[in-house]
Amino acid sequence: MLSESTQQMQMMILVMQLLQQLMQQLNQHQDPTNQAQPATPLSLSQTEQSILQSSFGDTKTTVAVLDGRNQDGKLTVGDTLIVQNSAGQELKRSTLSSNDMYELRFRENMLKNGLAIETGWEFTDQLVSIKDAALAQPELRQFTSANGLTGTERVLERNQFWEVVEREGNRYLLMRTSNDQNQTVQASDAINDLFDHRQAYAFDCASPMSVLNLKASLDTIGADDFNRNAGQLMLASWFDQYDASQFDGGYIAQVRTAEAGEININGIRNLAGETALFDPSKGDQLIPGNGYYFDLPGDNSSAVQGWNALYLGQTEDGHHQFWSSSIGKINVDFTNNSYLTTGQLSGYYLGAVVSDPNTTRLQAWDDDGSVVR
């Protein structure tokens, strides 16, 4: 049997061990590095707030974002988006995905570039034109299109970055592969020249939306990735060289059309095939950085039959602001929430045409994943 003194010694050792364990646990609870940090609300830029509010909320709610587990202090994949009512009660929450971030950054760049170029480009009913750059005699040459078709094209106009070519009666702005000094032309440089020297180019009202798409893509993913993926650029109205639709300007376009006579503005009714009236109850959303279309009822052939526009957002006094090439910034009011316009575009209506970012293409072109890092 153990002596009484030995038993007392063992009891003391056991008590000391227990005290040591308790002290370690207490220190761990007091160490802030071992405690779960409360989620921190992110401070969003005005543009980020406007885009997220329109994408996930409405006029009766407020959108906020909590920093994710990485606590990096900036808007990134994995952050928590919360929609609250006017009383501050949470209605729903979601986690920002890669797709959300590509949409956000693309729309940011659409807004930045649209505002930076003021009235944009001079209007022409020839679709595309390089001003004061006509060749003395058109050049004939063979071409092979992206889908493998071959034919003869006429080169009509040329500068250091672009040519205007005519294929089967249609005019296109085609990027040169090399300039007059036999230097390789990069897609990023060709796009930037359209913005840096706007006075040298003229477009119809649709081509600028395709140009803005490419510029926003460039600014979103960076020049290196853009140049690796864009290939030889080709522009004309809504023509899209990269997909089978070939007429969406590089966006994911949603269009609804109306039956003849559905829309009546001052006694003028729409023709069959013109766009339906914009209608939020059918899923139409006004999101800053998206493309939209103002339609003139009863006109499907003239140069003013409609205006393509970039939505900039809503002002504090209730005006909706749009940007359109050759016009610039426009304040639009809608009568009785009907999406029939008053003011500068009086007589037009906002059509059910919504051009969203093509996030699948953006992600495929973003080789280094810089948008979501």
Automatic annotation (TrEMBL):
Q: Which GO terms describe its molecular function?
A: protein-glutamine gamma-glutamyltransferase activity
Q: What is this protein called?
A: Uncharacterized protein
Top-rank taxon of the source lineage equals: Bacteria
One BP term from GO: sporulation resulting in formation of a cellular spore
Mark out the compositionally biased spans (Polar residues).
Answer: 31-51
Q: Give one Pfam family.
A: TGL
The record, for InterPro entries, names: Gln_gamma-glutamylTfrase_bac
Keyword line? Sporulation, Transferase
Taxonomy, top ranks, is:
Bacteria, Pseudomonadati, Pseudomonadota, Gammaproteobacteria, Thiotrichales
| Provenance organism | Thiothrix eikelboomii
Q: Where is this region: Disordered?
A: 29-51
